[in-house]
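Fold it.
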Amino acid sequence: MVKTIMVVDDNPDVTDVIKQGLGYLYPAKYKVICVDSGKSCLRLLKDNQIPDLILLDIIMPGMNGWDVFAKVKENPKWREIPIVFLTAQTDPYSEGFGKISTDDYIEKPFDMQELKKRIDKFLQRK
């Protein structure tokens, strides 16, 4: 069964790498949807495009990842979607709070095989 992963990142290089590394290499396993902002993420969720997992950057213009995370978790329809921060925000506070509040916290740059392994861990639970 194909699992949908929504990647929310304003850097097209990151979204392209993930789309190629997961969506193109494993098309029978993953469908990757990429959006470049928190507002776009919330719009898709409101349109009932509910992914199996969200990879979320923290540092984005407009609505940052913390705000997107809060909006997703306050909505009963979306609350159970696993959220993994995938970010260059590596200060101790962000990392510590990210690890206790989200499902996982992965720092950029990341290894694609490790990212896949960690994504699979959450998707197997669903």
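The helical segments are 12-24, 38-46, 65-74, 92-101, 112-125.
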